[in-house]
Design goal:
alpha/beta; TIM Barrel; six-stranded parallel sheet; 12 helices; about 40% helix; Phosphotriesterase; Phosphotriesterase-related protein
Length: about 325
């Protein structure tokens, strides 16, 4: 049985259980946080994050995929500290989150640049996957990049191709943040295929922000897993519209091509002064929303418990195990 890397070490693929495919424990601008909010790095915040994870473990959810990479404030020691306090498996990620330029350390370093060299991002991503992240020995189990409404900006394309090359070297699955209204998932698939990526090991993220069934079916027909992963972000699409879309996709035979999640912040985010401010601003954006509110609606819409289980268990397991 294939082993999947987590923050506490390898876990057999058949032990992942129910998986939330797209979440974040902490989100931050690292420079801002280190200079102005060192209070975030306390036992209190670590304990609070672990307590929220333990609360969903009690509901039967076993694993989260933390998709915090460069550009979102990945801080591996804090993630490990939370993992040690919870029974939930945490699959950690490597990659770069950018809608435009690459991070500064890569701007002049790479093929054809001022420091002409092979793409440095590939080696860094592969090292995170095969050796460990930030000197901790904890290995990444997912690759991530992004594309937004502006499309395939030079830094976005460079990062995406580097992620694809690291995927080829390690067989690690990929998640891509996309802008579904602009159908950027199709561009993602084109670029990744050009690099030789296996689209069945690719999650097209934020597909739940779209009710365009033709677009979603085009992505799924090429083998990718659709991330219906922003439950609780009500200003992009209502919960009912998200549920109706999933139910119709299931009726059309695509239940094996979707995975559910929230894309929420579990511990803290420096986007908000306090965690309570976050909860007031987005009251449904929390780890219990799918279990408490969404699953009853899916059942009312005709989605069976077995079909729901497939979206939490079978589909993520296939993504990671290959």
């Amino acid at each position: 049985m294939t082993s999947i890397e987590t923050a506490r070490g390898p876990v057999a693929a058949d032990q992942l259980g129910k998986v939330l495919i797209h979440e974040h424990v902490f989100l931050m601008n690292m420079e801002y946080t280190l200079n102005y909010r060192p209070d975030f790095f306390t036992d209190e915040t670590l304990d609070a994050a672990a307590a929220r994870l333990n609360s969903i473990k009690a509901l039967g959810y076993d694993t989260i995929v933390d998709l915090t990479v460069l550009g979102l404030g990945r801080h591996v020691p804090s993630l490990i500290a939370v993992a040690e306090r919870t029974g939930v498996n945490m699959i950690l990620s490597t990659g770069v989150y950018t809608f435009d330029a690459v991070p500064g350390p890569f701007e002049f370093h790479g093929p054809g640049l001022m420091v002409d060299a092979p793409e440095p991002m590939v080696d860094l991503f592969v090292r995170d996957i095969t050796v460990g992240m930030a000197g901790t020995g904890v290995k990444a189990g997912m690759l991530k990049c992004a594309i937004e409404a502006a499309g395939l900006r030079p830094g976005v394309e460079r990062t995406m191709r580097a992620v694809a090359q690291a995927h080829l070297a390690t067989r690690t699955p990929i998640t891509v943040h996309t802008a579904p209204k602009e159908h950027t998932g199709l561009e993602v698939q084109r670029v990744l295929v050009e690099e030789g990526a296996d689209l069945s090991r690719v999650v097209i993220g934020h597909c739940g922000d779209s009710a365009d069934l033709d677009y979603l079916m085009r992505l799924a027909d090429r083998g990718s897993l659709l991330g219906m992963d922003r439950f609780g972000i009500d200003f992009t699409l209502t919960t009912q519209a998200r549920v109706d879309t999933i139910a119709e996709m299931v009726r059309r035979g695509y239940g094996d091509r979707m995975a559910l999640s929230h894309d929420c912040c579990i511990g803290w985010s420096d986007y908000f002064p306090r965690f309570d401010d976050y909860r007031r601003a987005m009251p449904n954006h929390h780890l219990h929303h799918i279990h408490d509110d969404v699953l009853p609606l899916l059942r009312e819409a005709g989605v069976s418990d077995r079909q729901i289980e497939a979206m939490f268990v079978d589909n993520p397991r296939r993504l990671f195990a290959g």
